[in-house]
Amino acid sequence: MILYTLKKSLLDFYNNIFNMIIFSFVSFIEIILLVYLTYYLLNINYYLGVLILLILSGPFLLAHFTTVKTILTNDINFKTIFVNLARSTKKYFIKGIKFVLFSITIYFIILTNAYYLFLNRASLFMLVFMFISIYLLLFFTSFEIYLCCLITVYSKAINTDSIKEAFYLTVKNPGYSLSLLLLTLMISVILIMSLFGIAVALVGFIIIISINGVVNII
Model-level pTM greater than 0.85? Predict the structure, then answer.
């Protein structure tokens, strides 16, 4: 099934190649600006600003997923892409903030726990739990893909029901969920190493794979 997801994603990208290249390039510029702002704020020790940027990235992330879904399901021109991004950011502003705050909390707990266990890795017991923490990190990242698509593709609210559904999908399909996560990571590395691909395909193609991966399993 993961090969079908990859094949369908390649076909979807090819069928909408002009819009996807524009979308990916705009997203690439946004990422560059975000990285630059983060670097600048860290240099001046303004950590609150970094946290605000991180929280605001939530609405933008959901808006990008929604825009890709719109590109795949509608015949739109490149001007509509910018309009859709702006409208989706406004539409998903509260949901996006909830999504990223939830994500930050869980990642903070897992990473803090993993770091503590790493410092005490001399103990076999702690070493085992450190690997369990790494597994939980991969599990939650797969869970995040499901939850993000449930919110944007299926218009679910961020509540206990959508969280339970995303958790259920991740637990029910552990092999597929891990394969989907590894596929997105592998494609990301390939596109980043190609240099040209990072600007014209990275964001758009990764989102297409994520959407198709979730749609196929649901």
Answer: yes
